[in-house]
Amino acid sequence: MKLYWHFLFVLIVVFLQITLFSFFTFHSIHFNFSLLPAIMFAFYNKKEKAIFWAFTTGIFLDIFSPLSFGIFTLSHLVTIALLSYFVNRFFTQLPIFLAVILLYLSYLFFEILISIISQSWSYLLFINPILATLVGTAIFLITRRLFSKNEYL
């Protein structure tokens, strides 16, 4: 896809994150939908696109977030960089069970990183990774089926 299409989709995802998904809270925990596309690109060995998505969604979320500027950008970039390195180094095609585990661990790492940087801990730290794993697994299965040739990503 062209860069401007990615940027348009980033804007749509961030807009949905800020407007729609911010209303779905569980004890003040918000589901971070904006990290999922970057994780999917990392799963399909598209490191440049994953980093682009992580950076741009992080910047836009930082603009609209009440937290200190840079928390989301840094957390997105570190999470995606580690995930991309791990997937690119050890796997050519990711099995579904490993994708589910990596999805959960990526979101757990992201939540822990946000908690460390913002210095706000919650006992409900594991809710967002569980929800992200459920939604992300469905998206992974759909994208794997639709883009099996890997030419459209």
Walkthrough of the structure:
This protein has 153 residues and is mainly α. The chain has one domain. 70% of the residues lie in helices and 3% in strands. The chain has helices spanning 3-19, 35-43, 47-64, 71-90, 96-118, 127-146; strands at residues 25-26, 29-30. Strands 1-2 form a two-stranded antiparallel ribbon. Strand 1 (25-26) and strand 2 form a beta hairpin. The model has no long low-confidence stretch (mean pLDDT 80).
Largest sheet features = 2 strands, antiparallel
Low-confidence stretches: none
Count of discrete alpha- or pi-helical segments spanning 4 or more residues = 6
Total beta-strand segments: 2
Would you tell me the structural class of the helices and strands?
A: mainly alpha
N→C terminal distance: 7 Å
- Described by the principal axes of the CA atoms, the overall outline is globular
Number of domains: 1
Task: Output the strand order for the largest sheet.
Answer: 1-2
Order of helices and strands: HEEHHHHH
Radius of gyration: 15 Å
Helix coverage percent of residues?
Answer: 55-70%
Mean pLDDT: 80
Strand content: under 5%
